[in-house]
């Protein structure tokens, strides 16, 4: 469901007073829960397990049916929101502000195909990109060195594969050794409880129509068990935009 679909669905809802705090409409809660679950590539049963509610409770929420506030809070926390996010009364936004909020939240997202980063081809494709964006939601600081070392490895591979570099790695055996070293490091991260995915995002810039960014998604297996089967992630296009001339 894209932003225009959401706006159309919300436009069909009865008008709400904007001077009295009211809970979010169950239709909006249903969309947010379903969207957030799909972003994580979680099954209904996975969300139910993390939220400590029944599968039928999650299904009822996603159908836009009412459930207890306690169940809503458990689902909200499991998906990374605060308690009360799905039921606490608040002053409703007017139509224009609601549209702006939706566009701000969802309108800049682009779907990028990803797969486990476990082949030399995946390393080579990432290294040939014009830049690398590492996304690491909810990864504890204890993994900082692992992630920093992976980024340095990929930077080295990118340097080695640059067309303008007369590199000592120009022979195939040494390049393959570098790829294998990177893959060995990734396997070590996986053994320590992380999932590492990668994909390529077309990110054309002014005067750079073929600009590409390697997307590296790193998540903890403990809190994101569905990641290994994830086929895509959503990337905010503003995070891969180059600053225009004169901008910081």
Index terms:
alpha+beta, single chain, two-stranded antiparallel sheet, 434 Repressor (Amino-terminal Domain), 248 residues, 2 domains, four-stranded mixed beta sheet
Q: Layout of SSEs?
A:
Elements: H1 3-11, H2 26-40, H3 44-51, H4 55-62, H5 69-78, H6 95-107, E1 109-113, E2 115-116, H7 120-127, E3 131-135, H8 144-161, H9 172-191, E4 194-202, E5 212-220, E6 232-236
Parallel strand pairs: 3-5
Antiparallel strand pairs: 1-6, 2-4, 4-5
Explain this structure to me?
This is Helix-turn-helix domain-containing protein. GO terms for molecular function: DNA binding. Residues 37-86 form the HTH cro/C1-type domain. InterPro entries: Cro/C1-type_HTH (IPR001387), Lambda_DNA-bd_dom_sf (IPR010982). The chain is an alpha+beta fold. The protein has two domains: 3-108, lambda repressor-like DNA-binding domains (434 Repressor (Amino-terminal Domain)), CATH 1.10.260; 111-240, no CATH class. The protein has nine helices and six strands, in the order H-H-H-H-H-H-E-E-H-E-H-H-E-E-E. It has a four-stranded mixed beta sheet with strand order 2-4-5-3, covered by helices on one side. A two-stranded antiparallel ribbon has the order 1-6. Helix 3 (44-51) packs across helix 4 and helix 3 crosses helix 5.
């Amino acid at each position: 469901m894209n932003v225009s679909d959401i706006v159309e669905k919300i436009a069909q809802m009865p008008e709400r007073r904007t001077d009295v705090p009211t809970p979010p409409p169950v239709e909006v809660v249903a969309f947010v829960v379903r969207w957030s679950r799909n972003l994580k590539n979680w099954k209904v049963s996975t969300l139910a397990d993390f939220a400590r509610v029944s599968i039928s409770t999650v299904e009822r929420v996603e159908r836009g049916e009412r459930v207890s506030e306690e169940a809503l809070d458990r689902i909200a926390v499991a998906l990374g929101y605060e308690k009360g996010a799905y039921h606490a009364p608040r002053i409703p936004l007017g139509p224009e502000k609601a549209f702006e909020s939706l566009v701000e939240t969802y309108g800049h997202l682009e779907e990028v195909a990803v797969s486990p980063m476990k082949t030399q081809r995946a390393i080579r494709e990432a290294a040939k990109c014009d830049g690398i964006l590492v996304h690491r939601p909810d990864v504890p600081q204890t993994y900082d060195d692992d992630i920093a070392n992976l980024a340095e490895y990929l930077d080295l591979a990118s340097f080695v594969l640059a067309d303008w570099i007369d590199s000592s790695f120009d022979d195939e055996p040494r390049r393959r050794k570098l790829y294998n070293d990177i893959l060995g490091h990734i396997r070590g991260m996986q053994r320590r409880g992380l999932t590492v995915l990668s994909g390529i995002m077309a990110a054309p810039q002014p005067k750079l129509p073929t600009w590409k960014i390697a997307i590296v998604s790193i998540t903890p297996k403990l809190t994101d068990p569905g990641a290994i089967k994830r086929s895509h992630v959503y990337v905010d296009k503003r995070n891969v935009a180059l600053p225009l001339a004169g901008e910081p």
